[in-house]
Amino acid sequence: MLTLIGQTIQFLVFHALVRVVDRVSRLPRSGVQPEVERLLRENLALQAQVRALVLELKSQRGARPKVSMRTRAAQVFAYLLTRGDKACQNYYLSASRTTIERWATKLRRGPWPWRRKGKGGRPPLAQEIKDLIIELKETSPLWGARRIKEELRRMGVKVSEPTIQKVLREAGFHPTGGHPMNLDKWKAAAKDAIWALDFFFVRTAKGVWLNVLLVIDLHTREIMELRACDAWGPTSEWTIRTFASAMHREGRQPEAVVHDHGTHFMGQFERQLRVLEIERRRTPVALPFVNGVAERAIKSVRLELLNHVRVRDVEELQWYLDEYKTYYNDHRANQAIGGRTPAAYGRDSPGAEVISLDEVRQRRLVRKSFAHGLLNAYELVDDESAAA
Question: How many whole angstroms separate alpha carbon 209 and alpha carbon 169?
């Protein structure tokens, strides 16, 4: 007990010393320091290390050398005191910079002598939640930890992304799902403020290339239209006719649209937008990422659907696109809007409340498939509802 109290007092003294020196050493310094100031700082650092090493040798005579807290604190003290002095750091610190930074982290955050493994802390993740995470990953291999977190949050289960990564890593899966895109792009602050339009190509099994028009609300992330065109080059008449059909079907009209400089967005398309009093904004030339929301939606369509099928004709392609549109708007957790579905976000529906572990055990994971099983949506329902 006395040893524990002594170690605690020793740690508190070094902890306070490191925090004070760290705060002082972070003050801005000039590029060229006076020679006297540099020598004085170097002398203090070396004295601290020599004193700690002498005490270490006296206490460890005849025993295997071991780095104690005293030596670590002296090294951290010297590193913080001579921060910016590369000569001292390169030639007078007995440990590497990475090791000293790790020691500094331990001195700031612990470990405290009374903190022992297996006592206190956050309880382990329940096995039922782990099984849910693994099942989502097995049935949807392209999903990463963040996507699984949003899907679970939509069902009322709150699990952190690092925890999901740990579960997937233990189960032998790769937890990441790609690299996020942090690009400046058009943004909308309200529903129907801006709709983004873009075309992309799809190749059929016969080698024919088809054009597909995507229309998406930048605020709610709802796909308003996903329409395939049988012609090689869609005209401006076909584009405005499809766009007007989407507005009529949804009963909504945007205040502005954003698109690129394609010829299918000129002529009749421009004239009809002026009649409808819809503002038109065009992206800069050769910068498609400015229309990043539409580009990311197209990427999702390709990764989750089109890369796994080879359609015969435009009718079959349109059937798959309709399936994906329903899945995307009503059942797919969107990371850009806090894990809610675009349809729920557009209706301003509240997110799912976090449920207890007992409720999770009383419910069943039900899967709903789209596009012949290529797309999967999940819900946690009561056993009676699932049986019905």
Answer: 40
